[in-house]
Amino acid sequence: MTARALRALHVPGKPLVLPNAWDVDTARLVEQAGFPVVATSSVAVAAALGYPDGEAAPVDEMFAAAARIARAVSVPVTVDAESGYGLAAPELAERLVDAGAAGLNFEDTDHVAGGVRPVEAQAARVADLRKAAGDALVINARVDVFLGAEDENAVLDDAIARAKAYLAAGADCVYPILVRSPEVLGEFVRAVAPGAVNVSALPGGPGIAALAELGVARISLGAGLWRHTQAHIRSVLGDLADGTLPY
């Protein structure tokens, strides 16, 4: 499937569900379970490679991991490319396409200077990436102002302005990561309609059906599947350390 087919799976109210993988083995499990797309999680991929998140892993290693995943599955792969690793748009697009990716997450966080980039600067980066990629990549533009926000309503207007600017610049989908309030999310979705919205599936938050009713087009587990797997392994190892076989 191409980026065009991946783009077509973003339907408000009938969301594409993405259990994010971090290596070939987990990517194959996602495909075998019947999911039509494999997404990667930057924090999980980086951890599997021995590095912290936040563009601390060498870019070559991150793209090599993405390429291994893309070669191993027959469904489209969308790559969590963080904030682009400092690469100019043409190189970023070329390396993603060469790795076999059909899409990417693209953050407005600045991992070098810290904080979130000015909306105009990030919209220009999205526009440059769209120009470089053409239709070959589905751009999921992350909106990071909800990260660490004590009052989601206080940053909602900024989030909406960013989302509209990124969509106008050529993004296919916008991702207000870690927004928790269903009321805030619903207002965000309505404000950026008909633009596609990606949300995080969070513990204790709305379920898949409820998120679909809010009109989202894409649901990501992010690091959720990886953290759930870690917790299970820790539990098994704890039993084993106490002398109990886990099987």
Short description:
The protein is of the alpha/beta class and 247 residues long. It has helices at 3-8, 24-32, 42-49, 59-72, 89-99, 119-133, 152-168, 182-192, 208-213, 224-241, and strands at 16-18, 38-39, 77-80, 103-106, 138-143, 173-176, 196-200, 218-220.
Integer tally of domains: 1
Report Rg.
18 Å
Helix content: 40-55%
Largest sheet: 8 strands, parallel
- Which CATH top level class fits? Alpha Beta
Global morphology: globular
CATH fold topology: TIM Barrel
CATH homology-level superfamily: Phosphoenolpyruvate-binding domains
Give the tally of β-strands.
8
Within the largest sheet, what's the order of strands? Answer: 1-8-7-6-5-4-3-2
What number is the mean pLDDT?
97
Summarize the helix and strand pattern as letters.
HEHEHHEHEHEHEHEHEH
* Total helical segments: 10
Architecture in CATH?
A: Alpha-Beta Barrel
Uncertain segments = none
InterPro entries: ICL/PEPM, Pyrv/PenolPyrv_kinase-like_dom, Pyrv_kinase-like_dom_sf
GO molecular function, one term: lyase activity
Protein name: Isocitrate lyase/phosphoenolpyruvate mutase family protein
Pfam families: PEP_mutase
Secondary structure topology:
Blueprint: H1 3-8, E1 16-18, H2 24-32, E2 38-39, H3 42-49, H4 59-72, E3 77-80, H5 89-99, E4 103-106, H6 119-133, E5 138-143, H7 152-168, E6 173-176, H8 182-192, E7 196-200, H9 208-213, E8 218-220, H10 224-241
Parallel strand pairs: 1-8, 2-3, 3-4, 4-5, 5-6, 6-7, 7-8
Helix pairs in contact: 2-4, 4-5, 5-6, 6-7, 7-8
Protein name: Isocitrate lyase/phosphoenolpyruvate mutase family protein
InterPro entries: ICL/PEPM (IPR039556), Pyrv/PenolPyrv_kinase-like_dom (IPR015813), Pyrv_kinase-like_dom_sf (IPR040442)
Keywords: Lyase
